[in-house]
């Protein structure tokens, strides 16, 4: 890896030996243009619409449970099958290095079309395993949309890349929370428990996904800071990724982050519903708690650019780790208003470090490997979501654990992220001092 002096550009971005792979041309401190922000907006809306099928099944879960005659223990499999499809597709993309060999805007379009077909296939399912297969291919489609979108966005931003990435992630949080808002609508409960509601939701989300699929190819071109394309498959590229120490620290931190984030997102609605809140109030609070993460990603998005990404990730993870333990204890003893406020704070700090991990990946790996590194990061991260999504409801039923201690099982994920980012920050500082000493000696 090329050595370079640890310094700060106009946006305060630390450039060191561990960030010398960023695809930043000589004028990289130049401010993003209006066209760059337009591209950011198009990508954010496209991802939000294209991924509307991801958690749509949770809106009509009561109907699906009755239709397929499954119990509450089997219902999480509908979500886990999506996560599994995402992981399988992301791993396959990483192995063949697809995002570095193909146009990522076209991959996003293809993913959106696959999502449309998989979503409509749910209407034809007659057995539970049919639905699991359809949801699996929904996950496959999501892996063709989200990781490539982060690479496309990176080509539009040299400076303020972390802030731009925050808008992309910020668009996902409200989409993930939307099912809870739908449940809270007056008269919504009866509609979403019927076949009519299921068909309506499927048709609407399919239409939204189709619009999102077309947007990257119809409204966007390639950005002014492209990553070099890789025309051939090279197995050695995977070894290069594995041997990139700083990059692997980011991947490990992202895995811990996802363990915590999706374990929390999937169980916050149940936590509120199990307390003293009514069903509608629980749904509204769950929507607000999850959406707060998207708000935080945008509001705090510039902090990573200004003060260092590793430091920012450490700060967010420390707060969320404390909340992992405090939420259950507060819910067991504190007034419900205090519990709701704490969960909103928790939701606020769960998300804003997420775009910084993706940004670090675009900076720490060789430009021709960035796409592969991004999908590999997403694949490993989403592997870690499946056990936490499945285990949290189980732990909440264990006597002596219940909700009082269940969320504490998410704290090790945040702790792993803190440990990895502290080590990365120390490594960047050490290499910067060494480079400075070398320059002074010369």
Automatic annotation (TrEMBL):
Transmembrane among keywords: yes
InterPro entries hit by this protein: MFS, MFS_trans_sf
Highest taxon of source: Eukaryota
Residue stretches spanning the membrane: 41-64, 76-96, 158-178, 198-220, 271-300, 369-393, 405-424
Keywords: Membrane, Transmembrane, Transmembrane helix
PANTHER family: MFS TRANSPORTER, TRANSPORTER MFS SUPERFAMILY
Protein name, entry field: Major facilitator superfamily (MFS) profile domain-containing protein
Species of the source: Aureococcus anophagefferens
